[in-house]
Amino acid sequence: MVVEELLLYFLVVPAMGYAGAAFLVRRTMRMIAEHQLGFLRDTGATSKFFVFLALFATPIVFGLVLFIQASQPALETPVSGPVLRTMGWAYSIAAVLTLLSEAWIVVRWKAASFREMFARVLILMVIPEVVIVWSLNISLLVLGVVQHGPAEPPLDQASADALSRSVAIMMVGAFAAPLVAFLVTRFAVLNHQTFRKILLTAVAGIVPAAVCLIIAITQIPRS
Fold this sequence. Notes:
There is one protein chain. The chain has 223 residues and is mainly α. The chain has a single domain (3-219), classed as Four Helix Bundle (Hemerythrin (Met), subunit A) (Up-down Bundle), CATH 1.20.120.610. The protein has helices at residues 3-35, 43-56, 58-70, 80-109, 118-146, 157-173, 176-184, 195-219. Helix 3 runs parallel beside helix 5 (118-146) and helix 5 packs antiparallel against helix 6.
């Protein structure tokens, strides 16, 4: 697998997801400003927008870590190549789904996301964020098996198939991120009274990802 392909999976695709999420949030701010004059000049709204951007950047940071680890020449073998490719696809999908889900939560609550409900919206955004964190964990565990020392036997086909199956399972679990966004944005209003119920709904939505994480870990061969 060439370095350019790994770059696409772990950095370019997450960066595109970042750009899409930032665009959605920024467009929402402009729509709010059409009805609330001076909104864009509000320093509080601008600083909170940058907080959202910082949260959106985590898949890129995690992707950089995986890119550095996966691009080592010693990892590339005929058996490990498909594993790295599957892992790249799984991480790319998880990154995009996480970013767009977080952006949609901000978009749904509009001006409240930048004012009185900012802290609560941020908490709701962190819940789908665990999808990309768990995807990172599975990827690092997979790389730990693929990377072998000089005295260790090379990766065999059975182990490679198990690793590919592990990341594929976690890729399915990544769809919990849009599920969370869908569930929490179905509520008519976000306020102090409804927040607890919305939060519990968001936690319930992330359960499928937790189940996939556990199953994915069990598929990883023990060295």
